[in-house]
Amino acid sequence: MHRSPGLIAVATFIFLYGCALFEPSKQPSEQPVIIGKIADEPVTLAELKNQFHKSSSLTADSGDDQALSDFLPLYMDYRLKLAIARDAGYMDDPAILSELSEYERQSAYPFWIERHIRDKLLDEIVERAGEHIHAQHILIELPEEAPPGDTLYAWNRLMEARVRFTEGEDFMKLSNEISSQRRGQSMGGDLGYFTAGWAVKPFEDAAYNTPVGEVSMPFRTQFGYHIVHVRDRRPTGPNKRFSHIFFLTRGTSQPVDSILVTAQKAYRELQEGKEWFSVVEAYSQDEQSRLSGGGIGWIRYGMYDPAFTDSIMQIEKPGQFTRPFESVYGVHIVKLDSIYQPSHEEIREEMSARLAQLPRMRDNERAVLDHAARTGKARFHRENLARFEEVLREELQPGLRAADLPEELLTKPVFSFHGQQYRAADYLEWLLEQLEQEEEPLYHHAMSGRYRDAVIDSELISLTRSRFPEFSELSRDYLTGLSVFRVNEDSIWTYAQQDTARLREIFENNTNDYRFDTRYRYIRFSARADSTLDQVRERIESGELIDSIRQDFSNVVMRRDIITNLNEEPYSNLKDLEAGQFSPYFEYRRRQTTLLLEEILEARPMTFEEAFNKLVTDYQMIREKEWIEAMRKKYRVEIYPEVLVTAH
Q: What's the whole-number mean pLDDT along residues 147-160?
């Protein structure tokens, strides 16, 4: 979804300056303590403290009196800009209100997930992560809007397979017979071992809730209807990190037997004690991992083909490597680099990060809609709905209008949610909009569920506001933040960028502030062996272009950049070099490295165009100070810092 620059940039501004319209927190018997005024409107100590505590993580310890005093002028400037925003009509500006609406829509679902769903899902995935499941399944592909007859057929076929399995038939044979086919391949089959987060949640739920040796009842996922057979469960072992030497078998005319002979040669070199990195560089055809010693990272079940994962998980000791073996990817020699047994806290942290990337969290509309349905007491008026559906199936045809159906029927409520009733006429209006997209209008049972979701989605912001006062506060915060952001943008930032005359004045009066220091343009070359760098250096010194070097040496890391400070490592190696010279070889990030000094750019003054961005930044600070001073006078701003002392 497209997000406007304001929606992104305003977040920083909001949390730096605070953005709520705070109501004074006062006891009935207490007089509010006034710490300032803006256009004769008082600003209270309670408001200041409220915002200070919210912003304390970005300022200082919330118990620090000096920090509160330092925060006072910042807060008063913010309140001043808020008053300017109100007077300028920004808080009623259609563009700002549209962006607020977009923010609320983007925020409502995550808000429910974080407060009601995330902790439950995290507890569940952490518990399941302690176990690997070996499962097989049968899948009958079925679209979500399939006719009832197709759904019943899939259910019956899967129940038939389940009975046949209990009577002794082989599950994989049943899967090959009954599962849907796609491009000649069965959509069911053996999944090998997997753990939490690998499969879509309905499938994972069914697998983890089925005992070993048994078959689940049919269940629905986005792909269709399944049954799952759980063959085995075993505790999750420690984390394992691997490297490999890889030989291509796809897209090559070389026979697999010949490739295995080459792999055996590499294997013998390893057995004879040759360094792993050298063998990787000499043989591996995985260009990406070859640059890092063949590293393929931490691997867990479910990441790759089950047979490949099973093969490498048999290695028990770091440093050990497999014999050459063939997988669906090619031929490998795999080495176990390290083993690590994480603590419960580390597992929970890892699962939390993984959960954030899963559809059940990222796109978990279903869970939010279901939870909101319970909160908003959603319900169908079944008798009215059934009568309406019966008439609709008979009358539905292109060009149908509400006037074609009995008025008495259309006024009946068919659905209730969040204190509102939705009549059959409302449902019909929604239906006709949906059916306009279809060539042949056909009412099916799934439409009432889709209508339920559409109603809940349309009312979710309202429900979220009433259910969570903090969400309403966030919305107010965002509106005020957007408005104040626009004040800064229109009155300070954009103004500074457009005031060319003032920018030139600053530039001409401060030429020493706008200079380039001496700069060094260089290229860094890194490889596993000095011999590789020797070849690169020889070809460059003979006059070859850098681009041809990049194409011919895929095992060499090259980076071109400009730097001004030669006191930082590894750039001190550029000292005393002349343009066109290479530095001595040195080790950098576990690789042999050399630097080529391409050019020394002497210190010089910037042109106005080169200095423009820096000038704008410098002028913005000047402009804000001048503008704030003018606005303080216009709005008669008064600040009483001494009150903070007497109030304690």
A: 90
Angle among Cα 19, 21, 24 to the nearest 5 degrees reads 130
How many Å is the Cα radius of gyration of the chain?
34
Instruction: Please report the DSSP string for 244-289 in residue order.
Output: EEEE--TT--S-HHHHHHHHHHHHHHHHTT--HHHHHHHH---HHH
CA 462 to CA 478: how far, in whole Å?
16
Other Cβ atoms closer than 10 A to 280: 27
Q: Is the pLDDT of residue 9 over 80?
A: no
- pLDDT for residue 192: 87
Which pairing describes strands 586-588 and 591-601: parallel, antiparallel, or unpaired?
Answer: antiparallel
- pLDDT above 70: residue 3: no
- What's the token pair of residue 143? 């679209």
* Dist CA 294 CA 325 (whole Å): 16
Compare 22 and 594 and report the one with higher pLDDT: 594
Cα–Cα distance measured from residue 450 to residue 90, given in angstroms and rounded to the nearest whole number = 37
Contacts of the segment 535-544: beta carbons below 8 A, 24+ positions apart: 537/582, 537/594, 540/596
Q: Of 82-91, 141-150, 223-232, 532-541, which range is least confident? A: 141-150
pLDDT value, residue 10: 36
CB 499 within 8 A of CB 626: no
SS3 label, residue 353: helix
Higher pLDDT, 134 or 552: 134
Three-state DSSP state, 566: coil
| Residue written as token pair 């008025």 | 407
Average pLDDT, the chain: 88
Residues 327 and 323: their CA atoms lie apart, in Å, by 13
Listed residue (486, 484, 479, 445) closest to 465, CA to CA: 479
Q: Which amino acid is located at 184 in the chain?
A: G
pTM above 0.70, yes or no: no
Q: What are the CA-CA distances from residue 418 to residues 139, 421, 561 (Å)?
A: 38, 9, 59
523 and 643 Cβ atoms separated by less than 8 Å: no
Alpha helices for 272-357 (secondary structure H): 276-283, 287-290, 306-313, 344-357
Task: Give the pair of three-digit tokens for residue 265.
Answer: 């040669």
Q: What does the DSSP 8-state code read for residue 117?
A: I
**Strand, coil or helix: what is 409?**
helix
